[in-house]
């Protein structure tokens, strides 16, 4: 009964809000996907560098890489932009997401109800453009509400003996730390919550800095669970966006694992505060990975298209 009321119900309700919001957003984008909107989006994503800064700025404003990735999936589903144009956006979201770590107290749930009310108000207007805009805004409000509802699971999970042991066991292996961060974030749909828990453990010197960083890198992978859920039932391009984000974050985390000591050393030179060291390390990691991959955006896109081919085009 305790598990049902504190974990299962928030998860089911949150997922329901999330999927309903995603559907509303897709419908809104689909109805607005005229030539004018396509030209505007193509202008801001015409090169990988343009796409990169679009992703970075959007994530900076929304304070959620997951929300921007979901938005990108919605645009590819509505065929406003193609998959190749989204690789730069994905790289930009990873850099923009570091602001969330620096401002970890920010709650997206604060924007959910106002956006939902504004969206409903616009949807009741007679003009089709306002109605479609209202659907998109209300959809985003529901998505934020869904993620915020699923975060309710965080507290009982934190108090759970199983998860406490899992975090403590992470001291013995950076690989366990990586998997811990990934699973925990995927379950509660919040990399920020995982990072906050890790920072708390660091303050009590329960974890080494290397293990803490492994958990945070795992959280980067776990945040992609939101995009993977959002891609269910979408077209091939939308699935390519979700898997590109997932595989890129996975590859970056695995590539950085052998250098966690060096990363910890560099962040230690910047500040003595363990929490800020984690924040700076995440920023350095995402900057290095994204800037290193940006010149190869077209090749990355080609590789993902080879892994997840569009069979409808072949047919």
Structure description:
With about 325 residues, the chain is an all-alpha fold. The protein has one domain (about 1-315). About 80% of the residues lie in helices and about 0% in strands. It contains 19 helices and no strands. The termini are far apart. The mean pLDDT is about 75.
- SSE class: mainly alpha
Write the H/E string, N to C: HHHHHHHHHHHHHHHHHHH
- Taking all Cα atoms into account, the compactness measure Rg is 19 Å
The number of distinct β-strands equals: 0
Helix content: over 70%
Summed up, the helix count is 19
Approximately how much beta-strand content do the residues carry?
Answer: under 5%
Judging from the principal axes of the Cα atoms, what is the shape?
Answer: globular
> What is the count of distinct domains?
1
Distance between the termini: 51 Å
Please, what is the average pLDDT?
Answer: 77
What does the largest sheet look like? none
Please identify the oligomeric state: single chain
Uncertain runs? none
Layout of secondary structure:
Layout: H1 2-32, H2 35-44, H3 48-62, H4 65-77, H5 86-96, H6 98-102, H7 109-123, H8 128-150, H9 154-159, H10 161-169, H11 174-188, H12 191-203, H13 209-222, H14 224-230, H15 236-256, H16 260-270, H17 274-293, H18 297-307, H19 311-314
